[in-house]
UniProtKB/TrEMBL annotation:
Keywords assigned: Membrane, Transmembrane, Transmembrane helix
Organism for this UniProt entry: Edhazardia aedis (strain USNM 41457) (Microsporidian parasite)
Domain MSP: 1-141
Pfam families per record: Motile_Sperm
Protein name: MSP domain-containing protein
Transmembrane segments: 153-171
Superkingdom of source: Eukaryota
Annotated PROSITE patterns: MSP
Amino acid sequence: MSDNPSLNDISILPDHIKIDLSTKTGILILKSKTTEGRAFKIKTTRPKDYVVEPSLGIILPFQEFRINIKLTPDSSVLKDTFYQGNMVFTDFSYFLNPSDHRFKLELYKFDWRRNLEELRAFLKEKNPKGIEKKLDVMVVGSKQNVSTMERCVFVDYFTWVFVIVTFLRIVKNILL
């Protein structure tokens, strides 16, 4: 039996990081398919943009583990052009540039009966061989971001009503 885990040992759902801009969060689920424990560590190329909780953990046999990913308040993702407040949106999804925004999931064989402190020591002392999976980042938005468009339509209607009322007053004054 190999000391190295396999990507067949777990399911990764979804197969990329999906960030919902309305909540500024995403969830990654790791599901164990084995009777043995697995440990994981997850890193990002942009630690100032994302908070990953937890970034290290132990997956129990045949169990699932949820990893929460949140955008930081100063995240560059929120400053990208497709998320500016003065733009009109419809439903969209967008993969961020993988050379800038990417996560690396490391998977290790590890006894699931041990604790996190033992996992940290294991990773530090043994420098174990694991496998890596790179995960791209997708940003998802929805029509709830179209309030700017709704305001523009209201202003447009209001402008036309104002023009018509003004015109009618002028016509009334001319005729009387």
